[in-house]
Amino acid sequence: MLTLLAAAVGCSSETPTSSATSASPTVPVAKDGQNYKACADGVCEVLIRQKAALNLNGDKFTATVLDGALKLTDSKGYISLSKSGSDVSRSGGGSAGGASGGLAAVSWSEQGGPLHIATLTYAEGDTVLVTFATQ
Fold it and tell me: What is the pLDDT of residues 41-56, one digit of tens each?
């Protein structure tokens, strides 16, 4: 009796439910993964989920991800990157502006300090992949 039941279940003509066939987006692999210490020299490619503490060549930021947007906050203001572009609010003698590449990119520097460049290459939900460079 069990054999017949198993055979009948195996021959079912029901189609799978939509949840069984839908796939979540594939998150790309970051060169430095979630090793935020790799950013200490100002050059790294990291995956950030929700929140992280970053040190970019001595400049410390809190990175927060929400709805596919990355916000980098420090004592002088913030830098925000998302699929729709970038937004910057910096105080002091620094400057910021757009940069090319990825979904969005921005560059900023403090007076007399290094130029930082952040390029967002993936952004979904609470996860982003971002590349940092310092010149």
Answer: 999 999 999 999 999 9
